[in-house]
Amino acid sequence: MPDASIDITREACPMTYVRVKLAAEALLEGATLEVLLRGAEPQRNVPLSAQADGHEVLCLRALGDGRCSLTLRIHHRVG
Questions:
Q1: Phi, psi at 27, each rounded to 5°
Q2: Which residues contact 71 (CB under 8 A, 6 or more apart)?
Q3: How far apart are CA 78 and CA 42, in angstroms?
């Protein structure tokens, strides 16, 4: 069970990752965040952006209704 969840299925890039970044910043180091997303572009770009920010992609799976669930472990960069 994730520590927090965010639904960005109605957002368009670049707001998809902006919403994820804000949610991640509100969580403690090591927490998990589930992101519900829809579409090829967010499915490709959100995990890449999260990894570039230092977060760990734990799981990306299709939900069968056109949405995907992305689970991240949050890591905050220091300095």
A1: -100, 155
A2: 2, 32, 33, 34, 35, 57, 58, 59, 60
A3: 27
CA quadruple 40, 76, 59, 63: dihedral sign: negative
SS3 category, 64? coil
DSSP 3-state assignment of 59? strand
Question: pLDDT class for 14, splitting at 50, 70, 90?
Answer: confident
In angstroms, what CA-CA distances link 51 with 10, 21, 46, 64, 74? 22, 11, 9, 25, 10
pTM summary value? 0.93
Cα 52 to Cα 11: distance, rounded to the nearest angstrom: 20
What gap in Å lies between CA 29 and CA 62, rounded to an integer? 26
Cα torsion angle, 43, 35, 38, 41, sign: negative
